[in-house]
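Morning. Coffee machine broken again, so started the prediction first thing and wrote up yesterday's gels while waiting. Chain of 217 residues, entered below exactly as on the submission form.
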Amino acid sequence: MSQDALITTVVGAHDAKHKGDRLYSSAVQLMAGIDIAGISEQEVVAVVQPFLYRWGRMGRVLGRAEFSGWQGQAAAVIQSHSGLLEQFRGADIASVDLSRQGSAAVTLYESLKEAVGQISAAKVLNLICPDFFPLWDNAVANAMRAELANLSGYSFDASVDPFSGEDYLRFMEGVQLFMSRHAGVISVLSSRYGQKRLKIVDACFWWMVGRPLFVVF
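Came back before lunch.
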Protein backbone atom coordinates (compact mmCIF):
# COMPACT_ATOMS: atom_id res chain seq x y z
CA MET A 1 0.00 0.00 0.00
CA SER A 2 1.34 3.45 -0.92
CA GLN A 3 1.78 6.11 1.74
CA ASP A 4 -1.07 8.21 0.33
CA ALA A 5 -3.34 5.17 0.21
CA LEU A 6 -2.48 4.43 3.85
CA ILE A 7 -3.30 8.00 4.85
CA THR A 8 -6.63 7.75 2.99
CA THR A 9 -7.52 4.52 4.80
CA VAL A 10 -6.51 5.86 8.21
CA VAL A 11 -8.47 9.10 7.86
CA GLY A 12 -11.54 7.26 6.55
CA ALA A 13 -11.51 4.91 9.53
CA HIS A 14 -11.06 7.83 11.92
CA ASP A 15 -13.96 9.74 10.38
CA ALA A 16 -16.24 6.72 10.60
CA LYS A 17 -15.34 6.14 14.25
CA HIS A 18 -15.69 9.75 15.33
CA LYS A 19 -18.68 10.62 13.11
CA GLY A 20 -16.99 13.46 11.31
CA ASP A 21 -15.73 15.11 14.51
CA ARG A 22 -18.79 17.34 14.61
CA LEU A 23 -17.87 18.61 18.07
CA TYR A 24 -14.56 19.87 16.73
CA SER A 25 -16.07 21.53 13.66
CA SER A 26 -18.86 23.24 15.58
CA ALA A 27 -16.42 24.60 18.18
CA VAL A 28 -14.13 26.01 15.48
CA GLN A 29 -17.13 27.68 13.85
CA LEU A 30 -18.27 29.20 17.15
CA MET A 31 -14.80 30.51 17.96
CA ALA A 32 -14.53 32.13 14.52
CA GLY A 33 -17.43 34.38 15.48
CA ILE A 34 -15.82 35.63 18.70
CA ASP A 35 -13.90 38.90 18.91
CA ILE A 36 -10.81 37.59 20.66
CA ALA A 37 -9.62 41.09 21.56
CA GLY A 38 -12.55 41.31 23.93
CA ILE A 39 -13.16 37.66 24.72
CA SER A 40 -14.75 37.24 28.13
CA GLU A 41 -14.46 34.52 30.72
CA GLN A 42 -18.11 33.68 29.97
CA GLU A 43 -17.26 33.08 26.30
CA VAL A 44 -14.38 30.84 27.31
CA VAL A 45 -16.79 28.86 29.50
CA ALA A 46 -19.37 28.69 26.69
CA VAL A 47 -17.04 27.74 23.81
CA VAL A 48 -13.51 26.81 24.91
CA GLN A 49 -14.44 24.76 27.96
CA PRO A 50 -16.84 22.36 26.14
CA PHE A 51 -14.25 22.02 23.37
CA LEU A 52 -11.53 21.03 25.82
CA TYR A 53 -13.71 18.86 28.05
CA ARG A 54 -15.98 17.11 25.56
CA TRP A 55 -13.83 16.90 22.45
CA GLY A 56 -10.32 17.24 23.89
CA ARG A 57 -11.04 15.14 27.01
CA MET A 58 -9.00 17.51 29.15
CA GLY A 59 -11.45 17.72 32.06
CA ARG A 60 -9.39 15.53 34.38
CA VAL A 61 -6.26 17.64 33.79
CA LEU A 62 -7.96 21.03 34.00
CA GLY A 63 -9.83 19.91 37.09
CA ARG A 64 -6.60 19.85 39.08
CA ALA A 65 -6.05 22.48 41.75
CA GLU A 66 -3.12 23.95 39.82
CA PHE A 67 -5.51 24.97 37.03
CA SER A 68 -8.22 26.43 39.23
CA GLY A 69 -9.74 29.46 37.51
CA TRP A 70 -8.14 28.59 34.19
CA GLN A 71 -11.10 30.03 32.28
CA GLY A 72 -10.41 33.58 33.43
CA GLN A 73 -6.67 33.17 32.95
CA ALA A 74 -7.17 31.85 29.42
CA ALA A 75 -9.44 34.77 28.57
CA ALA A 76 -6.80 37.21 29.85
CA VAL A 77 -4.02 35.56 27.82
CA ILE A 78 -6.10 35.53 24.63
CA GLN A 79 -7.02 39.19 25.09
CA SER A 80 -3.44 40.28 25.80
CA HIS A 81 -2.11 38.44 22.74
CA SER A 82 -5.07 39.08 20.45
CA GLY A 83 -2.93 41.06 18.00
CA LEU A 84 -0.61 38.12 17.38
CA LEU A 85 -3.48 35.66 17.30
CA GLU A 86 -5.29 37.73 14.68
CA GLN A 87 -2.17 37.60 12.49
CA PHE A 88 -2.28 33.82 12.55
CA ARG A 89 -6.05 33.45 12.45
CA GLY A 90 -6.07 33.42 8.67
CA ALA A 91 -2.57 31.98 8.20
CA ASP A 92 -1.78 28.59 6.69
CA ILE A 93 1.03 26.66 8.36
CA ALA A 94 1.96 25.07 5.05
CA SER A 95 2.97 28.42 3.55
CA VAL A 96 4.37 30.30 6.57
CA ASP A 97 8.11 30.74 7.11
CA LEU A 98 8.47 29.40 10.64
CA SER A 99 12.06 30.60 10.84
CA ARG A 100 10.59 34.12 10.84
CA GLN A 101 7.27 33.57 12.61
CA GLY A 102 8.38 30.90 15.06
CA SER A 103 9.24 33.20 17.96
CA ALA A 104 5.69 34.58 17.98
CA ALA A 105 4.27 31.06 17.95
CA VAL A 106 6.50 30.14 20.91
CA THR A 107 5.30 33.21 22.83
CA LEU A 108 1.64 32.33 22.30
CA TYR A 109 2.12 28.69 23.25
CA GLU A 110 4.12 29.47 26.39
CA SER A 111 1.57 32.06 27.53
CA LEU A 112 -1.37 29.69 27.19
CA LYS A 113 0.61 26.82 28.65
CA GLU A 114 0.81 28.75 31.92
CA ALA A 115 -2.97 28.95 32.02
CA VAL A 116 -4.10 25.53 30.75
CA GLY A 117 -1.06 23.25 30.44
CA GLN A 118 0.90 22.06 27.43
CA ILE A 119 -1.65 19.85 25.67
CA SER A 120 -4.62 22.17 26.17
CA ALA A 121 -2.49 25.13 25.04
CA ALA A 122 -2.07 23.60 21.60
CA LYS A 123 -5.78 22.74 21.46
CA VAL A 124 -6.81 26.31 22.31
CA LEU A 125 -4.39 27.74 19.75
CA ASN A 126 -5.78 25.38 17.12
CA LEU A 127 -9.34 26.32 18.06
CA ILE A 128 -8.55 29.99 17.42
CA CYS A 129 -6.20 29.48 14.43
CA PRO A 130 -7.23 26.07 13.00
CA ASP A 131 -5.09 26.38 9.87
CA PHE A 132 -1.90 27.39 11.64
CA PHE A 133 -1.44 25.76 15.05
CA PRO A 134 -1.38 21.95 15.03
CA LEU A 135 -2.87 19.74 17.73
CA TRP A 136 -0.70 17.45 19.80
CA ASP A 137 -0.83 15.16 22.80
CA ASN A 138 1.84 13.37 24.83
CA ALA A 139 2.12 10.35 22.56
CA VAL A 140 2.15 12.35 19.31
CA ALA A 141 4.72 14.81 20.68
CA ASN A 142 7.03 12.00 21.78
CA ALA A 143 6.70 10.22 18.43
CA MET A 144 7.48 13.42 16.53
CA ARG A 145 10.58 14.08 18.64
CA ALA A 146 11.88 10.61 17.85
CA GLU A 147 11.20 11.03 14.14
CA LEU A 148 12.85 14.45 13.94
CA ALA A 149 15.87 13.01 15.74
CA ASN A 150 16.08 10.31 13.04
CA LEU A 151 15.64 12.78 10.20
CA SER A 152 17.75 15.72 11.30
CA GLY A 153 19.52 14.96 14.54
CA TYR A 154 17.16 17.20 16.53
CA SER A 155 17.43 16.63 20.26
CA PHE A 156 15.93 18.12 23.40
CA ASP A 157 16.72 18.09 27.09
CA ALA A 158 13.79 16.37 28.78
CA SER A 159 15.14 17.35 32.19
CA VAL A 160 14.45 21.01 31.37
CA ASP A 161 10.97 20.88 29.80
CA PRO A 162 9.90 18.27 27.24
CA PHE A 163 6.92 20.43 26.28
CA SER A 164 8.53 23.84 25.91
CA GLY A 165 7.57 26.43 23.35
CA GLU A 166 10.68 25.55 21.36
CA ASP A 167 9.64 21.91 21.40
CA TYR A 168 6.20 22.87 20.07
CA LEU A 169 7.87 24.90 17.33
CA ARG A 170 9.92 21.85 16.30
CA PHE A 171 6.64 19.93 16.21
CA MET A 172 5.17 22.59 13.92
CA GLU A 173 8.17 22.17 11.62
CA GLY A 174 7.56 18.43 11.56
CA VAL A 175 3.92 19.02 10.64
CA GLN A 176 5.03 21.32 7.82
CA LEU A 177 7.30 18.56 6.51
CA PHE A 178 4.50 16.01 6.64
CA MET A 179 2.08 18.35 4.87
CA SER A 180 4.56 19.21 2.12
CA ARG A 181 5.17 15.53 1.39
CA HIS A 182 1.48 14.64 1.31
CA ALA A 183 -0.12 17.90 0.19
CA GLY A 184 -2.28 16.34 -2.51
CA VAL A 185 -3.95 13.61 -0.49
CA ILE A 186 -4.40 15.89 2.54
CA SER A 187 -6.24 18.45 0.40
CA VAL A 188 -8.44 15.76 -1.14
CA LEU A 189 -9.34 14.32 2.27
CA SER A 190 -9.95 17.78 3.70
CA SER A 191 -12.56 18.40 1.00
CA ARG A 192 -14.04 14.91 1.25
CA TYR A 193 -14.67 15.06 4.98
CA GLY A 194 -15.20 18.80 5.36
CA GLN A 195 -12.35 19.11 7.83
CA LYS A 196 -9.41 21.46 8.18
CA ARG A 197 -6.17 20.09 6.78
CA LEU A 198 -4.55 20.20 10.22
CA LYS A 199 -7.44 18.09 11.52
CA ILE A 200 -6.68 15.54 8.80
CA VAL A 201 -3.03 15.58 9.90
CA ASP A 202 -4.10 15.08 13.52
CA ALA A 203 -6.17 12.03 12.56
CA CYS A 204 -3.12 10.54 10.80
CA PHE A 205 -0.79 11.18 13.72
CA TRP A 206 -3.33 9.86 16.22
CA TRP A 207 -3.37 6.54 14.39
CA MET A 208 0.40 6.38 13.96
CA VAL A 209 1.49 7.00 17.55
CA GLY A 210 1.98 3.29 18.12
CA ARG A 211 3.86 2.91 14.85
CA PRO A 212 7.03 4.51 13.42
CA LEU A 213 6.21 7.84 11.81
CA PHE A 214 8.57 7.05 8.95
CA VAL A 215 5.68 4.97 7.60
CA VAL A 216 4.32 8.19 6.12
CA PHE A 217 7.26 10.63 6.31
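The chain has twelve helices and no strands. Going to sketch it on the whiteboard this afternoon.
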